[in-house]
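User: structure tokens for this one?
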Amino acid sequence: MPRSKKFKELVQQHIKADKKFAEALLREGIEAMLSGDVETGKSLLRDTIKATVGFEQLAKATGAPAKSLIRMFGPRGNPQAKNLFAVIGYLQKKAGLHLRVAA
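Assistant:
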């Protein structure tokens, strides 16, 4: 009997294989945070980071330690705006996106 993969692993594989899915997940993560669902937003951004750039590369790009970034996007994490915007900016750049907030 084949072993089933964990859901998070499947999501990360899909992110790696499908650029449109990766872009949509990044958008959803940011939109979740903007709408006040910070926990879901952090989870979606964490999956995106793990499957695309990784926390080590993100640390080099943002100047924040990798361990701090991992904690920031964890269940108890409380990202500061400065770090969060640096991460979102870098993820957008790597994805070739330019997201805007509109009323």
